[in-house]
Amino acid sequence: MFPFALFAICALVSICLVGPAHSTLTHDSQSSYIRFSTVTGFFLQDEASTNASTFSYINTNFGLINRSYVTDTTYDPRGKKTQWQRFAHQVFRLNHNAPRGTQYKLLYMGRHGEGYHNAAESFYGTPAWNCYYSLLEGNATVNWTDARITPEGVAQAQIANTFWASQIRNQKVPTPQSYYTSPLTRCLETANITFSGLELPSRHPFVPTVKELLREGISGHTCDLRGSKSYIQSAFPSYKIEPGFTETDQLWEAYHSETPVDQDIRTKTVLDDIFSNARGTYISITSHSGEIASLLRGELYPLLTRSSHRSSSGT
To answer: For residues 63 and 41, what is the distance between their CA atoms, to the nearest angstrom?
Structure first.
């Protein structure tokens, strides 16, 4: 996993709807399910030679591999297009030629900037943090319940914003058509700083949807206790909150943690929902290191992924 820092991961995801024939990407848990698969060869993060501890999305064009595509001969015969423009056309052709029930989507997955809970863990040390301090609301200096991002975290998000602006201007990178974020404050703040003020198309503005299940691995740590629905609506009035979002946190419980298997089930649930309802091909997800690790276990890490609807019997 990447060391602490705000980072971005690009994943090209192929989504197949396996089961009864569907004309659109829908999900019926009684008869079918969505299968995600990865398409490799597009991003450095997918290469075995890439060192996760030193990888920088800023220095590597979001990790997009400098390569040619079979569609280049007709789309860019004079070699005038950027790598991202040629990649976007390749994705367009993949979707155009995909069998019924299959879609390709690109995920821009970003981790939140440094939070006060991260700073506290660094200060006290991980053993003391896990055994004692993480269970407190904070110390005499700072509160880390539903932790906000530190000045360093703000700076990290501003760097991401500057990078996005340059990529949009110079590389013509396709901007997200749908935005999603964890309900924890550190992600709400990071997403806002990262995408505010960018030259985004009017038909796809930055209006993220807050998704309960995109949150960090649920533990007894107070930093994982989210704020109320009323607080989120007041602090981030332009954000959309998904239907069914409860006023108070019904998932967090002191001294209890979900298992990795439970988190992966939760992750699959929210991905099914996102891919069944998201508009467009390009999707932004602002989340956490633990939740992104769960996405990776689900084959959604800098990859081209395919999803399909399968019947519940597996046939």
So the answer is: 11
Query: Does residue 240 contact residue 209 with C-beta atoms inside 8 Å?
Result: yes
Q: Length of the chain, please?
A: 315
Provide the greatest CA pair distance for the chain: 64
The pTM (predicted TM-score) of the whole model is 0.89
Looking at 112, 117, 221, 309, which residue is catalytic?
112
The tens digit of pLDDT for each residue in 276-289 reads 888 899 999 999 98
Give per-residue pLDDT as tens, 133-153.
999 999 999 999 999 999 999
Q: How many Cα atoms sit within 13 Å of 304 on the Cβ side? A: 17
Q: Which residues pair with 16 in a beta bridge?
A: 35, 102
216 is catalytic: yes
Task: State which H helix or E strand residue 306 sits in.
Answer: strand 304-310
Sign of CA dihedral 249, 254, 257, 262: negative
259-287 average pLDDT score? 91
292 vs 5, residue with greater confidence: 292
Residue, of 165 and 14, whose pLDDT is higher: 165
Q: What residues are paired with 104 via a beta bridge?
A: 14, 306
Residues 41-65 have pLDDT tens digits of 898 887 888 887 788 888 889 999 9
Given the residues 114, 189, 216, 291, the one annotated as active site: 216
DSSP 204: S
Contact criterion met (CB below 8 Å) for 81 and 87: no
Indicate if 112 belongs to the active site: yes
Alpha-carbon dihedral sign for residues 161, 163, 167, 169: positive
Nearest C-alpha neighbor of 194 from the set 156, 238, 147, 160: 160
SS3 2: coil
